[in-house]
User: What shape does this take?
Amino acid sequence: MDAPLFRWDLSSLRGHRPVGQILAAARGLLPRAATAGGLIAAYLGLEWVSFIHEHKGLPVTPWNPGLGALFAVLILGGPAYASVLFAGVLLAEIFVLRTQLAWPVVVLMGLIVSAVFTTAAVVVRRRLHLDVGLSRVRDVLILLAVGTAASCMSSALLGMLLIGTDEMTFDDFAQAALPLIVGDSIGIAVVTPLVLRLQQWRANLTRVSAIALAIELALYFAIVGIALWLIVGHGSADNYKFFSLLFLPVVAAAVRYGIDGSCLCLALTQLALVAVLRWHGHDAAAFTEFQVIMLVLTMSGLLVGVVVSDRERALSLARAAEGRIRDMQAEATRASRMNMVSGMASAIAHEINQPMTAARALARSVQQLMQAAPIDTGRVNGNLANLVAQVDHAAGVVRRMRDFLRRGRPHFSTLHIAPVLEDALVLASPEASAKKTTIRLDLDDGLPAIFGDRIQLQQVVLNLVHNSIEAIGAAERHDGTILVRAYPLRNASGVGVSVIDNGIGVPAGRPLFEPLSSTKGEGLGLGLSICASIIEAHEGRIWLHASEKGTTEFRFSLPSEPQAT
Assistant: This one.
């Protein structure tokens, strides 16, 4: 078959810059057109569901969810969606209300509604800086106030238009104005927050299991059904005193889920109320009376919900701040340990060097004994045992140092105070020996178990012993003595530990346990503050028992192991 005489080569057209730009613009407009079409269809559907009847060109309905939904879209998307509201109003007048008004009047009505609520949305978002998440009471009050004001302005302008074109009299407008204002206001109060919080309430309502949520919904519908039966089911529209029953599920949902629960519960309550009122055939006047009360319920429920959400958010921020403070305290505690060890570094290095030197000498002696004939097996075994003991001693110092410097969160477990004190004094003994100071440990009988973090408690003891060593050095004593004593508290309710030294004492009137307060010229003032934080975290108490020269004593107490543990 011969090739066609003419062929449209679209690929060549796409390469042409003007045509390529047109195609790209068309591809960008398609999603927007689809979104606009979906919004217009949703608006028309909501208008059809909520419409009661037309009165002189005005939709007399005390429930306008379509306007509430598009008002939320205008707040989120900006003035670009004003044309969507304009088109929705025109199409609703034609296909839902089946209006008999002249085309110019219908177009002006669409312009008034779209202009008023678009302006209100811009004012709310850009001038009043509304948080679309409705996270504060201020945001809810702004939304309700501006929405109600826009509803009043729109109704007034529509009335002036219809009166000016002889489509309506003042009496007709007075009859239709209140339902119109109430319908627009409650549509904004119920639907706009629901749309704005759509993403958040979906996340929050998944916090509970499906079974628990189903039980809550069933209970809610039962309470709403009973309340509506009492209000409307008797064939009388005067049972307003039972309307307060509807506050119970709304407030319960607000307390349970915050603003998201109140938004969802109010929307369902509104739908149920409108359905029951229409089922019993109440007229627009009865609708308006009930919807005024429903508007009060909606405002109250939203305020309760936002207060609950704001409190939960404040508690969450407080918990996060507490977590950061704990992390900072842990880092400060570890930094204090590093600073303490750096000060003891030379003494600890000497402590490790001694057993390593002895082990090297013992290894050489074993080597020489093994080369001699006959081999003295007894001496060889003795030297090897001594060598292993020296290596174990050095390894123990290194292990304790590594554990002491470990990083991580505190690990609380059941402890006995004796090994905690012994390990701490092993680390402190090199510095004490270097400064001619003797450390004695006195453990009473019957010490109960405690519950705490071993490394943190060792740090408390090391801080106190280190301060005692420095106090003895400042006193220039050659008979420095530090006594560390552990004793059971009364009724074996815990353990008390005291650190006594014969140094220069503590000056009176110094805030010892406050951060950045130090009695030493070169001190940072963190040691005793960290000790106090650690002891308080263990539900204990630390204090200066005696401050005189030669008999300075610090004490701290720790409660015994909790019964639940």
